[in-house]
Amino acid sequence: MLTYPGVITVSETALEFLATLLADDRARQRTWRKLSARDQALLVLAHLRNGDTYEQLAAGFQVSVGTAHNYVREAVDLLVRRGRSLLAAVWTFAWTWSNFLILDGTVVRTNRIRAHNKLYYSGKHKHHGVNLQGLMDPYGRMIWISDGLPGSTHDLTAARTHNILQVINRAETIYLYADKGYVGGESDRLLVPRKKPANSELPDDTKESNRVLAATRAPGERGFAVLKNWRVFSRFRGCPRRVGTFTQAVFVLEQEGI
C-alpha cells in the first residue's frame, strides 16, 4: 500500500472549529481515541472535502477502516446537533431587512440501490440520488437545508413533506421565490413563474414577470453550488439515508467553521 501527501482546500479555522468540537465532546464523555482531536478532524475533512474513501483514510492515518468510518460518523453527528431547525432559521432571517427567501431543490447522486432502485431514481436527473431542499437569502447564502428524501420525490412534494410552505405562511413578512417545480403550492406567499398554456402564448406582461422572477431566483443556485464543492457529494457512496445528515454537517462547517 502506497501513501502520499495531499491538500484539503478548507481554512485552518474549519479544522480548529471541528477539533475543538471533538475535544469538548471527548472531555464531556471522558472517552479516549487513538487519534488526537485535531487528527480526527483532519481525517473527517479529508473525507468530506476531498471525497477520500474510508480505505484511503485508514491507510493515510494508520487506523482500521471501521475506525475511520466511526470517526467520520461521530464528527458528522456532532456537527448536525449544532444545526438550526427550519422554524429557527426562518424566524432568525425574519429579523433582517430582507423580505424574501429563495427555495430550490437538488438531487445528490448516489450509487444504485438494489433494494430501492425505482424509489431513489430521479427521472428528471436520470440517475439515482437523494432529494434535498434548501432556503437561500437574496444573496444566495443558504440559511437552511433539509433532510434527504428519495430521488424520485417531486420538489413540491418534498417542500410539503418538510413543512416549508406552512412555516413561510406563518412568517407573514416573508415571500418565497421558487421555480416551476413548485407550481401548485398551497401558499399565498409562494411566488412561482406562470407556465405557458397549451397551444397559446403567454402575454408580454406575464413573460416579463417570469423574467423578473428568474433573475430574482438566480442567486439561489449559489447555495447548493457551495455545498457541492465538497466532493463527498460528487457521488455519495454511503447509505442514502445519511445524505441529508452529511449535507447538514457540511452546512454547519460552512456557517461556523469557514
Automatic annotation (TrEMBL):
Could you say which cofactors this protein requires? a divalent metal cation
Pfam families, alphabetized: DDE_Tnp_4 (PF13359), HTH_Tnp_4 (PF13613)
Return one GO MF term: metal ion binding
Q: Which residue range or ranges hold the Transposase Helix-turn-helix domain?
A: 33-84
Please provide the record's keywords in A-Z order: Metal-binding
All copies of domain DDE Tnp4, residue ranges: 103-253
Q: What is this protein called?
A: RNA polymerase, sigma-24 subunit, ECF subfamily
UniProt-listed InterPro entries: HARBI1_dom, Transposase_HTH_dom
- Protein source organism: Frankia canadensis
